[in-house]
Amino acid sequence: MCFSEKIARLLSLSFLFSERVDVRLVGGGSRCAGVVERYDQGEWRIVGAGWDQKHVAAVVCRQLGCGSNVSVLPGHTAKGFLVSCSGSESSLRECLRGYDLHPGLTVICSESVRLVDGAGLCSGRVEVKSNQSWASVCEADFDRQDAEVVCRDVGCGAPAALQGGLYGDGEGQTRDKEFQCKGNESLLLDCDTSDRENNTCLPGNAVGLTCSGKKQFVTQSTLFLTWSEEYERQYRCVSVRK
């Protein structure tokens, strides 16, 4: 490799690295959970959003390589970046809208499993993270009990549909292990695995999964927040009995 090619490659790697590290999650116990912060001009500042908090969370989890977003909660109010995302962006930088005083966001990502190329946050091709890369799962290695755990892991409701090839095959490799979940595990990585009997997964057999809509209940003072895939977001006040 000539000197100019080395320089070009270093610059490319530097750009990719800067894209990844200008966002972080802090205070959540792992690199895939915590308050969203963005680095700019020598400082880390909070990130806030409006009605599209779940889309912002999806972008943050994707940018950090942390799978799907499981939950997102409003945080403390401070000056920081205001963002608005559609959910399809590869970087939070694409979502920047301004800088102002607003509530921050606390995000929890699934870390090890995600649903991709689906119509919403609770549907898509099942992909599992292994050795820092994502691999699809063959339909023959995945059953209803596995689906129960995946839907729970990504913060969604019960499985509604399970089918090979439903959301394409993807461009990566296919996982070479078979999951043996009991159905009551909280995380897919808590399930036992075994070597696949057949090392070949034919095209059109990458398992696709649709879970029932995401629902999340957050209590903050007297604010009751409900989410669902069907009805974006609703607020209502409730009386608190002392």
UniProtKB/TrEMBL annotation:
GO BP annotations listed: zymogen activation
Predominant location category: secreted
Disulphide bonds in the chain: C85-C95, C181-C191
Keyword Secreted (UniProt): yes
Annotated InterPro entries: SRCR, SRCR-like_dom_sf
GO molecular function annotations of the record: serine-type endopeptidase activity
Subcellular location: Secreted
Record key words, sorted: Disulfide bond, Glycoprotein, Repeat, Secreted, Signal
Residue ranges occupied by any SRCR domain in the UniProt entry: 23-110, 113-212
Keyword Signal annotated: yes
Annotated Gene Ontology cellular component terms: extracellular space; plasma membrane
Transmembrane segments: none
Protein name in UniProt: SRCR domain-containing protein
